[in-house]
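Board notes (copied after class):
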Amino acid sequence: MIQQTGLTANDNYFENFEVGAVYKHARGKTVTENEAVTICHLVMNSASGHFDDHLMATAHAAGKAHVDRALVYGGVTISITIGLAYQDTGEQVIRELGMDNIKLLGPVLHGSTLYAYTEVLAKDDTEPSAGRVTFRHYGVDQNDKLVFQGDRTALVRKRPQGA
């Protein structure tokens, strides 16, 4: 069951999430070379495969790399995917509780466009005003190839009384 979601709405309180529901998020994001390389350097990732196209082309020609140009740092892929999902899964979040089962499943290159889907894995009614929700986020590229999967658990606000 995939539900096409609109942009940020008022139906993302704890009560609105159903275990098993899958959401296709409305926006996509093209990863520019400038963004990917800047973030890579800001977090002190010095792996040349993220910013040296010549190195990657040479390694690919020698059969030592799967792609022939620089790869987007995985932290960027994770951040963009969760960011795309956040408009529908994070507006009522009180606190992020954790991330788990992070998998980078395919290459993302400069110029790739990412899209996000979210599956609701679990709900736990933990507090009078909030509950815990576990989401599985999926990132796909412009060719619908799965490039990221990860679970995120958050404390989500319940709908205010009388609203």
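Comment from the instructor: The CA atoms of residues 122 and 134 lie 5 Å apart. The two ends are 27 Å apart (CA to CA).
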